[in-house]
Hints:
The protein is α/β, with parallel strands linked by helices and 148 residues long. It has one domain: Lumazine/riboflavin synthase (Rossmann fold). The protein contains 5 helices and 4 strands. It has a 4-stranded parallel beta sheet, with helices on both faces. Helix 1 runs parallel beside helix 4 (112-119). Catalyzes the formation of 6,7-dimethyl-8-ribityllumazine by condensation of 5-amino-6-(D-ribitylamino)uracil with 3,4-dihydroxy-2-butanone 4-phosphate. This is the penultimate step in the biosynthesis of riboflavin.
Amino acid sequence: MYKILIVKAKFYEEIVDELLRGAVQHLQMVSVKYNQITVPGAFEIPGAISMAFQSSLKGGISYDGYLALGCVIRGETNHYDYVCKESARGIMHLSLRNNLAITYGILTVENIQQAWERAKIENGKNKGKEFAEACITMISLRYQFSLT
Length: 148
């Protein structure tokens, strides 16, 4: 069975924890193993995934896929734009360069209400489950194309 590394950003922790709860519920339901690490924010997620992957090449734990979970909410400065663009670019670069199954589960929203709409399990719209499903799909494709 597959093994996934969940890399969770600590910034907006309550929202991200709700995404995590939805993702973990789904992974457990389909018997996918996972480990979890926490990084300060969304900007640090690609670096952590890169470290984990490089570690696996040197005999460390090997993962079939990676699930990036975070939340970035627009503020009064353009910091939002940098974090969104660079976290997405970093993850895409890792995915393409190394043929990794990485799911970008980072909410990029205008306000806290939009974040909670996408995170709450109780409203049936928790994106964490969808992100977990996407990660499993990408892992399956990686195996289908013999890229493991």
